[in-house]
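From the methods appendix. Each design record in this collection lists the tokenized structure first, followed by the designed amino acid sequence. Records were kept in a plain field format so they could be parsed without special tools. The example shown here is representative of the layout used throughout.

RECORD:
FOLD TOKENS (220 positions):
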């Protein structure tokens, strides 16, 4: 097994061991709830249960707001190792991190999903390409929106920049947290409309139903 990047500088072993992983049945249930009503997302997996005021939220906050890039790479490597069997079965051609709107990326200085993708790329030896799709709509934060408003907020939010790279390919969309799945669904829709063969998605964490709306960091 490939050695993971050290996590000692951002979380202790005891704290990390206390993060709950999703069961296979929970993943299946979340796929059914989020994506089964359309043909845009072919399959989905996630590793941890996202809860407020938890160790996994602290890790994602450190990456997302405190420029702890190594956290993203570490989490991506872990995803690649823990989910290697299912990800290899999907025969993925390219990894696509969820794009940020360009002004938001300028303001933050980086896209946290890219660092997760870089760690994943390192584990799986699958190329990452952040030039294929872009976010063309400056959407508001999903945090305080209900499901209906999240859908309206994300409608027509993405566009494909390089359609020739999309046709016939299998894509893996990567994000930190997938809540209702609205963001992923919209990107998958655009990829499928431009000729993608299969679109899958993967996240570090997923809040279960009781934690879905209103989390301070669960936006997608």
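DESIGN:
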């Amino acid at each position: 097994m490939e050695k993971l990047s050290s996590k000692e500088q951002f979380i202790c072993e005891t704290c990390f061991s206390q993060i709950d992983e999703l069961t296979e049945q929970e993943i299946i249930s979340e796929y059914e709830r989020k994506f089964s009503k359309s043909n845009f997302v072919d399959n989905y997996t996630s590793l941890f249960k996202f809860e407020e005021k938890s160790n996994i939220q602290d890790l994602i906050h450190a990456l997302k707001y405190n420029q702890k890039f190594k956290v993203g790479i570490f989490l991506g490597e872990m995803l690649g190792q823990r989910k290697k069997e299912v990800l290899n079965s999907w025969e993925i051609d390219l990894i696509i991190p969820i794009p940020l709107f360009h002004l938001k990326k300028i303001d933050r200085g980086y896209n946290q999903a890219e660092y997760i993708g870089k760690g994943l790329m390192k584990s799986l030896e699958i190329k990452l390409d952040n030039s294929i799709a872009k976010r063309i709509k400056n959407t508001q934060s999903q945090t305080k929106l209900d499901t209906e408003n999240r859908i309206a907020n994300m409608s027509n939010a993405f566009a494909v920049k390089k359609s020739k790279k999309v046709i016939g390919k299998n894509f893996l969309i990567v994000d930190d947290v997938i809540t209702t799945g609205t963001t992923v669904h919209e990107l998958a829709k655009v990829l499928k409309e431009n000729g993608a063969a299969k679109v899958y998605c993967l996240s570090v964490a997923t809040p279960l139903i009781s934690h879905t709306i209103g989390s301070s960091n669960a936006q997608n």
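APPENDIX NOTE: The chain has nine helices and six strands.
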